[in-house]
Amino acid sequence: MKKIALSILAVGIILLSSCASGVKSFKEPTTGDTMLVVGRVLVEDNYFSQEIGVYKASIEVAVLGKTDAGKEVGFWTITDKEGYFALGDVPKGEYVIKGIRAMVGRGSQVTITNRLRLSTDPYSITKKASILFDGNYFPYEANGRILSLQQNIFRLDQMSNQTNQVNYQVRFKLEDFELVDGTTLNDDSVENYYLQKYPDTSWKSELEASAKIQKFRR
Description:
Elements: E1 8-9, E2 12-16, E3 34-46, E4 52-55, E5 60-67, E6 72-78, E7 84-91, E8 93-104, E9 108-113, E10 124-126, E11 130-133, E12 146-157, H1 158-163, E13 167-171, E14 174-178, E15 184-187, H2 190-197, H3 204-211
Parallel strand pairs: 3-12
Antiparallel strand pairs: 1-2, 2-11, 3-4, 3-7, 5-6, 5-8, 8-9, 9-10, 12-13, 14-15
């Protein structure tokens, strides 16, 4: 997968919806100066679209980064069938989910973003076609060369239609976690998911070490 070419503007970096096909995914390290960013996204529709549903697959995830060299970067990635995503072999630095795009209900696209200025900034629904890659709030701390953005649950409900606000939760693991469709999840850390999926990866020792530690700056 190729990295999207980004235009750095005074106000930040803007990626248009037409660019979403150029995504990064799980990639083995090519040098010792890169890192692996992993995470998961689930979108719950609690009558936001007059239906109940849980969406995991093919969610477009916009990840904002700030490299150790101070450069602002932005990447698109996309979730697999279970909602997991990865950015492999990216520059060392800080990363966070800037926004997502998902199809809910009967084919309605919803875009959700965060200003990422303060810890109290909410994720909100936006009708804009683009996502602005800017912000200075990075709550996650890397464990070695692994940065886990954890399990992220975005719940849309009828109130969201009026306020544009999104109920957002982040968890290290999902233990007896009941979704709006009645499904109960018991899922381990994101790192362990990728260890099972890629048992021979060069990231193995780093993933194993990271799975034992949960780091936030909150």
